[in-house]
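Our consortium's second objective concerns turning raw sequence data into structural hypotheses that experimental partners can test. To show how far this objective has progressed, the report includes one record in full. It was chosen at random from the queue rather than selected for favorable results. The single chain below, 147 residues long, was entered without modification.
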Amino acid sequence: MHKLFSISIAIATTALMAACSNANKATGGGANNEADLYKTWRFVEIDGLPVDTAGLRTPAELTFEKTDSRVFGSAGCNRITGGFKLEAPNKLSFTPLAATKMMCMEKMEYESKFFGVTDKIKTWSVVDGVLTLGAEDGKTLVRLMAK
């Protein structure tokens, strides 16, 4: 009977530890793997605005490159380029970003929203193929999905 009780406790403890680990990852509290950042990401949401990719001039995506800590892409119209800085496992900030100056008749709000939040982005996390860029207070500013 004592052996059965000990096995039950061990199973329950293992299940509880796994649940806590998954909850920690879901809130961005888990350790980020820097290698997960270096790929191309499609915009899903920018400051609460879902990104509708239909009819965009260029793909709404960002690519993070480890070499020279560069980022490039587009929010649907103009090309974006610049740099970023990783300071800790979950700290990320953009250096001033540059963009071309083409005028697109539709969906310019994605670019406006993105450039409106870039200076507020201070954190990052990758969970289940989704990159979340957030403010220091934990607010989600940009969500991107691995391409």
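The partners drew two points from this record. The two ends are 53 Å apart (CA to CA). Residues 1-30 form one domain. Both points have been shared with the crystallography group to help prioritize constructs.
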